[in-house]
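B., you asked whether I could sanity-check this one before it goes into the benchmark set. Here's the sequence:
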Amino acid sequence: MKVVWDLGKATVRDVYEVLLKRRRIAYTTVMTMMKILETKGHLKRTEGERAHIYQPAQPKQQVISGMVREFVNRVFNGSAQPLLMHLVEDEGLTEKDLAEIARIARRKKP
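And here's what the prediction gave me:
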């Protein structure tokens, strides 16, 4: 998704070439993942002259929010508190990070 967001629209070959610069990956793996993202509604596909062209189906923030929500539901039974506790305790957040979390939490209170 990140590559498609960065490029705006891309073919499987475009995404494959970007990812290949970072690590070895099979073309078919990229193709399969893009088909899965299309099936989940994160990408939409149009017919290009020689290849399918993919572009984001929803804004980046909307997709990220949905993926985080799905992760919290699947891994933490719908409660974000254990995830936040893990991040605070195990991930070495800086004082600045913690202050920003506290600021956001105060702003979200009813």
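One thing to flag: Residues 2-56 form a domain with the Arc Repressor Mutant, subunit A fold (CATH 1.10.10.10). Otherwise nothing jumped out at me.
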